[in-house]
Amino acid sequence: MTQPLSNAIELNPPQQSYKRSFWDSLRGDRGIWTIILLLSLISLAAVYSSSSSLAFREGKTALFFLLKQSGFVVIGLAILYVCHRIPLGWYRKLAYVGLFVSIGLLVLVFTPLGKTLNDGTRWLSILGFSFHPAEIAKIALILYVAKVIEDRAFDTFEEFVVYLLLPVSVVCLLILWGSISAGIMLAGTVFIILVVAGISSKHLMKAIGIFIVGLTIVVTLSQTTKLFPRVDTAMKRIFTYANVEEKKGDSFQADQAKIAIASAGIVGKGPGNSTQRYILPHPYSDFIYATIVEEYGFLGGVAVLLLFLWLFYRTYRIAKQCTRTFSSLLAIGLGMLIIFQAMLHICVNVGLLPVTGQTLPMISLGGTSFVIMSTAFGMILAVSRTVDKKQAQETMEATS
């Protein structure tokens, strides 16, 4: 008697495993995987074109920087893949350790290991390898905040100060010494996490007051003792932005970015045809969005912007599906950190904000930034993978 087709399928399920593709082995939100792939491809094209001036200064070719960025992309995506497979329990265990390690790295910047680059001492050079510890500290702080909020109720303001306000202030102040915009951006991200987590409004209002007082002290110390050297740079950029007509010579970067964008049109000048890349300072990092718009036009600029807005939507969707506080806050915190940095970069490039020196996540040239952002994306996907796994288990239990 001929065996029914349904029985044959039940007797031979392993045969279907041979048809699985690499794409099927990826877990988590497919939309975010798509965004990562597109941003990586845009990075390679934009860096190859915009690094011409850097190649000329260093006596290299643009191909050299394309291969260099390709290496960063490969390493970053490999780390991303590993991070997205790590159980969330491991991230919970790393939260407190990561905070202390990141603070230690930020303190090392003040030692002979600290390296000055682009008028800012915010890099570490260890065994010939240079990296930006603030990038690591941003991820570590969000990881810590998500964990400590899950562990504690913060019924008293004293508990809030000891376990949240004090650690956040220490990290942000250390970052402020090297980058004002990065420190304020991180503080703003943490504040949104606290609001989303439902922390007492009284605690938050007191924290805002302390932040304002602390920022005032930082500015005062900068003016009197030069303890925070980047404050003078930030204030100069703000005044230049507010008085462009009076200080045209000081607004060179912003002016060249505006020229690049204004000359682009709808479809741009075409890949590799940017002219401002030879004039703009750092067109491959701080002003890479202006280069993208110049070459790909209004449509290209909008496409990049929409990718980050799509990321915000997907991250928000993942956070809403979480049933644990840590998972939800980690996803929304890392998502907001990436979005804030991207929007800050874009707003500076189009002339809506003063120059800040923030790179465009997953696109600008740079090893530390790409790898750390890949780690952040990997953590978000780890949350998404856990959510998908739990939903699949609940579906199986409901149908069994």
Q: TL;DR?
A:
The chain has helices at 5-11, 22-25, 30-50, 52-58, 62-85, 88-108, 133-151, 157-176, 180-197, 201-225, 229-242, 252-262, 288-321, 325-349, 367-399; strands at 114-117, 120-126, 129-131.
Q: Tell me roughly what share of residues is in helical segments.
A: over 70%
Ends: how far apart?
A: 30 Å
Mean pLDDT: 85
Order of helices and strands: HHHHHHEEEHHHHHHHHH
Helix vs. strand class: mainly alpha
Shape: globular
The rounded Rg comes to: 23 Å
**Main sheet: strands, sense, barrel:** 3 strands, antiparallel
Structure write-up:
With 400 residues, the protein is mainly alpha-helical. The protein contains 15 helices and 3 strands. The protein has a 3-stranded antiparallel beta sheet, with helices on one face. Strand 1 (114-117) and strand 2 form a beta hairpin. The longest helix is centred in the C-terminal third of the chain and has 34 residues, at 288-321. The relative contact order is 0.14. Residues 1-18 have low confidence and may be disordered.
